[in-house]
Each structure stands twice: as structure tokens, then as C-alpha cells.
Amino acid sequence: MRSRNIKPGFFQNENLVELEPQTRLLFIGLWLMADREGRLEDRPKKIKMQVFPADSWDVDSMLEGLTGKNLILRYKVDSKRYICIPAWGKHQNPHVNERESTIPAPKQNSTNPADSLIPDSLIPDCGGARKRAPTNYTPSVALLDGLTEETGAVDWELADLLKEMKDHEFKSAKKDWDAVYRNWVRKAMKWRKNETHSRNPDDFATIHAGVRKAAGLK
């Protein structure tokens, strides 16, 4: 199991409060068992041993209760059963070093009868798959010039921040990567300026030299 977040809104969720207390507790247990994409194997006996080892509750029925409230999706891929949590990406932020998921996401056009009942609107968010900027994304010269004029960022800083943005996993796909990059640079440069004011000149010189070295500059 893994450490996950529980937000105050969990206890006022209108769908959850209609379920039995043990089913609500099971829902939390599924978060702890799920991988970084909010997916796990649909094996009720295994789940019971992980979450309720000393109780005799019917976990399969409880899973059906969660499914009925659209809190989880139960689906098949190549005859294997899985569970995923549709709202995962909105509430959980797995550690960047957490192992990648080995469980396939539900297929939107699945031929499995059970999968055909999954609302299409839920599938894109199922498991909270993170999105990265396209590897071939390159900001225009006009955008770079504008950011230099606006924020004071020089070429090596803009290149460094572009690499950071491409390495970052966003919770959802973005339609306008220019806008994402613009906001990324603005926030980063604002933070750097604030950090500069809080340090003495010697500290800043060390940081500046280190960043330039990492960027391959002298």
C-alpha cells in the first residue's frame, strides 16, 4: 500500500454518504492499493485481505456499491479484471518517483459488455493519467522575445525552464502549450526574483554559476 491524500470534502460527498461506513472505508483502502494512475487489480479476496483482514464483510458487493455511484470503474482488458478511480487525478498527486502503472486503462471502444456501460465522459480522467508537453514543442521566437522583455529571462533561463516544463507531468492535456509555457516562465522568474532578494550576493552568485553549468554554459 501507498500513502495518499484524504481531503475534508470526502466526508461530505453526497454519493459516499449514501453508502455503508465500511464501504466508505473500502474506498479509502482502494486509494492506498491503487498505482500512480489510480488503477488496481479487481480481485475482491485480495482486496479484503489488504483492507479488512480481520472482518467478514462482502467486498465484492461493496465494490458494486461504489460502482453504482460512479466512484470506481470495474472493467476488463484481455479477460483480466481491473478497477480504476475516475477522479484520481483531481485528488491525488503521486510522488514523481513512484513506479509507472503496469495496468492498462479502460478502452473507450471496448467490446466487453461491462465496459460498454462506462460513461465516455469518465474514461479520459480514469486513473488520472498525467500529460506532458509534446517532445517536439518549441516556443516561437516572438514568444521567447516577449518573455525576455516581460520577465528579463535570458536565453539559457528560457531553455532551462522549457526543459523543466517538458519534464513536468500535468494532470490533464493542454490545448495551448504556448500559454502553459508563458505562465511557467512568469511564475518561475517571479519566484527567482523573490529568492534573489532573500539571499546575499555570494549565495546568488553560487546558484547562478550552478544553473549555467547545468545548462552547459560557461
What is the topological layout?
Blueprint: H1 21-33, E1 39-41, H2 44-51, H3 59-68, E2 73-77, E3 80-84, H4 88-91, H5 113-116, H6 141-151, H7 155-167, H8 177-197, H9 201-214
Antiparallel strand pairs: 1-3, 2-3
Helix pairs in contact: 1-3, 6-8, 7-8
Describe this structure in words.
This protein has 218 residues and is mostly helical. It folds into 2 domains: 8-125, Orthogonal Bundle (Arc Repressor Mutant, subunit A); 141-214, no CATH class. It is 45% helix and 6% strand. The protein has a 3-stranded antiparallel beta sheet with strand order 1-3-2, with no helix packed on it. Strand 2 (73-77) and strand 3 form a beta hairpin. The termini are far apart. The model is unreliable at 109-124 (pLDDT under 50).
